[in-house]
Design goal:
One of its GO terms (biological process) is transmembrane transport. It comes from Candidatus Sulfuritelmatomonas gaucii. Residues 1-23 form the signal peptide. This protein has one domain (28-141, 176-344): Rossmann fold. It is an alpha/beta fold. The model is unreliable at 9-22 and 351-360 (pLDDT under 50). Helix content is 32%, strand content 18%.
Length: 360
């Protein structure tokens, strides 16, 4: 009798376990994650920020509350997700970690597209241009002394950590100082989108005419160029000169400074940790920044006078940059989703990765 009771109990437990397992939903496979950083107001129907065009045009109507992150995530039925991180590296790192660990989603084959607006170096890019980054370098990790106390023979008061003078050799990047993205994937995205037409206007032409720089006068174009990411919004020709040396210093001469950003080292650090935990593939990350403003003053203004005009929503090429960001980024998203069977297991142009330094 006891034996029958044990068997009956065991069968009941197995049935309950099977029913519980069957009731637990499988994680939602995510194919592409678009990472935006700020929104001007609501997700739809008003002045756009970095998220709105993606929500409206890609019909990201499925809303998943994400209380551990900055904002709810949105998806459509094609496997495309959009994440809004919030401004600054801290918001970005916390939000991406929260989303990446969310058991509702399967990111094992997901491609990540960081897509936002940026300041641009007029030597490398023009207003309204879209720039794919191969390197993202942190602009916050360092020593700094007040500008009024900079020694006369120093080009800047900003020093690498553990160094005594600016740009002291050999460079010694600390963890999180420089991230080398998948060069083959970035080249593939650039080649796919380099012919995308970007909007120009008489207003943009007039604004560009007030800036010096090899690329300042060009119509908007798609480019390859590297990024400084820092939560400090810096501005001015002297700061641009610092950035132009900071990027190659920490990339062994491989990087060329083109754009500024605030959040991307936070996002990339979380992706690196999530990859270590087996949640994501860090080789499937792209960074695209479109130029809404130049990182320095035009002729006739001081850096302080120019900075006073720099406000989100009022940048010289704010709407053109948002449009360029979506138009170029969506070409990649559309290719990935439209030929998913090709890209689910094989990263495009993965074989072209060669001597890039590993993410640090």
């Amino acid at each position: 009798m006891k034996s029958r009771t044990r068997v009956s109990l065991s069968v009941s437990l197995l049935v309950c376990f099977a029913a519980t397992a069957a009731a637990k939903p499988r994680p939602i496979p995510v194919k592409v994650v678009v990472v935006a950083m700020f929104e001007a107001g609501a997700d739809t129907g008003n002045q756009p920020g970095e998220l709105q065009y993606w929500v409206e045009r890609d019909h990201l109507d499925r809303v998943y509350p994400t209380p551990a992150g900055y904002h709810a995530v949105r998806m459509n039925g094609l496997g495309e997700m959009a994440v809004l991180t919030g401004p600054g590296t801290a918001h970005a790192a916390a939000t991406i970690m929260a989303v990446g660990l969310d058991p509702r989603f399967d990111f094992s084959h997901a491609y990540w597209l960081i897509a936002g607006i940026a300041g641009g170096c007029p030597e490398q890019v023009s207003l309204g241009s879209a720039v794919w980054a191969r390197w993202v370098v942190d602009g916050d990790l360092g020593y700094e002394i007040d500008a009024r106390e900079i020694p006369p023979d120093w080009p800047t008061g900003y020093l690498p950590l553990r160094k005594k003078v600016p740009f002291e050799e050999l460079a010694a990047p600390v963890d999180g100082q420089a991230y080398a993205l998948n060069g083959g994937l970035t080249e593939w995205a650039f080649e796919l989108t380099r012919g995308v037409a970007l909007d120009d206007s008489d207003r943009l032409k007039e604004i560009r005419s007030n800036f010096d720089g090899a690329a300042a006068g060009r119509a908007p174009f798609v480019a390859l160029g590297d990024e400084i990411s820092s939560s400090t919004y810096w501005h001015g020709k002297l700061m641009d000169a610092w950035a132009a040396k900071w990027v190659p210093y920490f990339t062994g001469g491989k990087g060329t400074f083109a754009t500024t950003a605030m959040e991307d080292t936070g996002t990339l650090q979380s992706i690196q940790f999530l990859a270590r935990a087996g949640r994501v593939d860090a080789n499937r990350v792209l960074v695209l920044r479109a130029v809404s403003n130049f990182d320095q003053q035009p002729r006739g203004l001081s850096a302080a006078e120019s900075l006073a005009k720099q406000r989100i929503g009022a940048y010289a090429a704010y709407l053109p940059a948002l449009e360029a960001d979506y138009r170029v980024g969506h070409a990649v998203v559309n290719e990935l989703l439209g030929h998913w069977a090709r890209y689910v297991e094989t990263i495009p142009e993965e074989s072209r990765r060669g001597d890039e330094a590993p993410a640090r």
